[in-house]
Design brief:
The complex is a heterotrimer of chains A (183), B (84) and C (144).
Chain A (H helix, E strand, L loop, with lengths): L2 H7 L11 E6 L3 E7 L23 H19 L10 E13 L8 E12 L2 E10 L2 E15 H4 L29
Chain B lengths: L2 H17 L12 H5 L3 H15 L14 H12 L4
Helix pairs in contact in B: 1-3
Chain C lengths: L10 E2 L14 E7 L2 E9 L5 H4 L10 H15 L6 E9 L8 E11 L3 E10 L4 E10 L5
Classes of the chains: A alpha+beta (183), B mainly alpha (84), C mainly beta (144).
């Protein structure tokens, strides 16, 4: 998949669309993606002349997001028919376990994510994998959890003058009909 | 240790890990939601971990039954066809 | 370190000296407790931020990973040596943060062996709703 095809699938946009290319994929099983890092990324815009090489380490938060978007591409590619992401649904990052930083990525590096989809239960997907720069592993991901939720249930604009009292907790889909198992 | 005991203790470890409590804090009949503040995502995680570790698929419709360790073990044993 | 410390004041966060998608801490409060620290960080979600324009168009939601960003920036500012993230042991996002929401992330920071920090955190909106819970491990920091 190229950038245009990725854009057609993922709802994120610049500057938070963090997958450049899908290099291989077995839908519902495993995906390999790349994200190239350059010194012109917005996350470096505020750095002054006194910034050290280490200050240019690409932020862990964005690496996690990039991994998560790769997982979303994998999940959505395996979905068929009514399971496809529609305009009134969002994929939300609901949690992670054991994300370990083993190295850093810097401008000029190409990060490669290898993501496996483990299970989908109740519209909640569990993914696992690693991130690499060349032969150097920079992160291992025990488990990343994403959920498909109706837009309306997640993020209604704050109602009333204060927005207080609006329940925007992320509901889990535990209905018997809503989910499915992949594999 | 019998196979049953071993699997029961393995299940206790898995669930304690998901609930982020110590293994000895998880009693046989302690209610996941009431005693250990488990929400629906935790319940889904428990189901997914059972699926992964024991290769046993418990239907999503049985999620409400997985209230405590004992009930969860019984559901796993039923779907796995464990006899011992 | 349990000397009678007055309630620490909120102070504005210093500019972020390392790569970051946004300033993810507006105000910070730090207190030494036993061998560790308690840290609170506050940030207002800016719906005009370019990040939120892309996440998502027409429906700005503070990305969950930015809670991790707030965590990293708060630790770097509050704890001597500027510790760096090693492991997110567990993080759960429980409620959405939208433009105009303010998040407070409260951290309990304990020393580990080998040298580093074990962190437990809870993020809340102003109305008290818990938006995220996390556990993480930080190293002693590049400056340590």
């Amino acid at each position: 998949m190229n950038a245009a095809e990725i854009r057609a699938v993922l709802p994120q946009r610049h500057p938070l669309l963090l997958v450049d290319r899908v290099t291989s994929m077995k839908p519902g099983d495993v995906i390999e993606t790349v994200k190239a890092i350059t010194a012109t990324e917005p996350c470096y815009a505020h750095l002054g002349d006194d910034a050290t090489a280490e200050d240019y380490a690409y932020p862990a938060s964005l690496l996690i997001e990039s991994f998560g978007q790769s997982a979303a591409l994998l999940w959505l590619a395996g979905a068929t028919g009514s399971d496809r992401l529609t305009d009134d649904a969002l994929l939300l990052f609901v949690g992670a376990r054991e994300y370990t930083v083993e190295g850093r990525a810097y401008p000029g590096d190409v990060v490669r994510h290898v993501v496996r989809l483990e299970r989908v239960v109740a519209d909640t997907a569990f993914a696992t994998g690693e991130s690499w720069v060349g032969q150097r592993r920079i992160a291992t991901v025990g488990s990343l959890m994403a959920a498909r939720r109706p837009r309306s249930a997640v993020a209604e604009p704050a109602a009333g003058p204060t927005g207080a009292g609006v329940d925007r907790t992320i509901p889990a889909n535990t209905s018997a009909q809503g989910g499915r198992h992949v594999r | 240790m019998s196979g049953e005991n071993e699997r029961y203790e393995q299940l206790r470890e898995i669930i304690a890990e998901v609930l982020e409590i110590e293994t000895d804090e998880l009693t046989d009949t302690g209610d996941f939601a009431e005693e250990y503040q488990a929400d629906s995502l935790r319940a889904i995680e428990i189901l997914a971990r059972i699926d992964k570790e024991f290769k046993v698929e418990i239907p999503q419709s049985e999620l409400p039954e997985l209230r405590n360790l004992k009930a969860t073990y019984e559901a796993v044993a039923r779907h796995a066809g464990w006899q011992d | 370190m349990t000397t009678a410390t007055p309630t620490p004041l909120w102070r504005p966060a210093a500019p972020v000296g390392f790569a970051a998608p946004l300033p993810a801490v507006d105000l910070i409060q730090v207190a030494a407790v036993d061998d560790g620290w308690t840290v609170s960080a506050r940030v207002v979600v800016d719906s005009e931020s370019p990040n939120l324009a892309g996440h998502f168009p027409g429906q700005p939601i503070y990305p969950g990973v930015f809670v991790v960003e707030t965590l990293c920036q708060a630790m770097a500012q509050a704890v001597p040596g500027a510790p760096r993230l090693r492991t997110v042991t567990s993080v759960r996002f429980l409620a959405a943060l939208l433009g105009g929401d303010e998040m407070t992330l409260d951290l309990d920071v304990r020393p580990t062996t080998p040298a580093g920090w074990a962190v437990r955190g809870t993020a809340r909106r102003l109305d008290g709703t818990v938006t995220a819970q996390l556990r993480a491990v930080f190293d002693a920091g590049a400056d340590a």
